[in-house]
Amino acid sequence: MLSSQRLRVLLEIFRTGSIAGAARTLRLSPSAVSHQLSKLEEEAGMGLVERGAQSLRLTAAGRRLATRAQEVLDIIEAAEKDLLAQARADAGQLRIGFFASAGYRLLPLALSTFTARHPAVELDLVLGQPHELLPDLERGALDVLVVFEHALDPWKPPEGVEVIHLFDEPQLLVVPPGHPAGQRQRVRLADLAGEPWITTYGTDTPVSVLERASALEGFNPMIRCRSDHYEVTLGLVRAGLGVALVPSLGAQGASGIQVCRLDGPRLYRRIGAATRPTNPNPALRSFIDYLRDASAQIRNALR
Asked: How far is CA 134 from CA 44, 97, 207, 218, 244, in A?
């Protein structure tokens, strides 16, 4: 394999027309330049210069290799600049996976301050369910994944992935305007056992959190519709077609509905940031700090 250092020596000989000129440019002794040139000829397996008593001239192969040397050195320089940018938190790239309701407020809140501080960082945002995007995090296609875990449906991160806990998010009962439950401070799920329900699909299982919570309350909910899109869920509730269990991130800012606090065990989600501890991306560390700040704001608003 040809040495990039020796290619640089050949390129300077080509530019200056002499070993002495190359030595001055490279701040080497003429003998060191001659030695590097000889080594390069050994690596190339052919002569690259014609040596005369008073002159030195590149062969056709030498001239062609010198031209290629410039291309190689340009690529190396670009790679070094990319690495330098990546080594700084205010440049490089950050690839973030997130679930839909994290994109309503949590992620925009974190990214608005992060991008103001690090405008040169290139962002790649990927929307999806945590269990769908975890393989991308494991293989390095994502730097960080904003995740949730239902207390009633816990999961264990795969080996090589660490989840940083951000905050616990309560599940809320969402009912249509004028519903009697909306007039009460606290409600139990069992109080609405006879109501039609709008619920989600399970997290990688056919059983939703509503069904798990209802089983603990001793009833089997009558499910009218399943949707993982909270806009759909809230729209159906708003139209009086049922009631729903919605995490607070999914209900924030919604109009035309009533929101009730629930009494009951483990009716919350844990929100976290999944990362690979071995990931050296410095922009990631800075983003996690802003994500923690955004989480603290949301946590305080939920109290």
From this structure: 47, 9, 21, 34, 28
